[in-house]
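Hi W.,

Here's what went into the run:
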Amino acid sequence: NAGVMQNPRHLVRRRGQEARLRCSPVKGHSHVYWYRQLPEEGLKFMVYLQKENIIDESGMPKERFSAEFPKEGPSILRIQQVVRGDSAAYFCASSQRGGASTGELFFGEGSRLTVL
Amino acid sequence: DQQVKQNSPSLSVQEGRISILNCDYTNSMFDYFLWYKKYPAEGPTFLISISSIKDKNEDGRFTVFLNKSAKHLSLHIVPSQPGDSAVYFCAASYSMDKLVFGAGTILRVKS
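Here's what came out:
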């Protein structure tokens, strides 16, 4: 299955530590989206990236959160100084083009962050 | 700011019967609507979509209906099967922009 690969699947961090979540898109896809799902809620858009560019980060908290999608390697969502409220499932999705509206988003299995 | 709402957290249906999942939206600018299905510990998978220029789209056992005047869409599954048991997310977007998801509805199909 050459789908979207996310790692780690589960990550436990203590308050104040850093969390790094990785996403390898479907081969050939150059568009990556990060979504967060809090308990009992739907998926909330965080950021949309193309290779080396952030296209839309309107859903990203202004502090502690950052994302990148380098020319080589996976996309990384980085959370600094984590707090308990950051505990959530973080989903990455990719598409071949900016096809968010066409259902052409392929989601990974998610990374579940638990902050103690 | 819940632009997409799924007011029923869960739905239980007997195998072979129809499942109807509902979704309401508030943003009249939305022009594309999608349904995603999610099993536990997996990512969402695309199920079916509909453009705002249509009021119905059908794909096998799955049909999506759109009522723009009521800002309401629904997903019908006929006949329901136990394998359909999952969380169903309604999503919407406008101008090829990011998807806005509802909170999801847990469907349980009893055999």
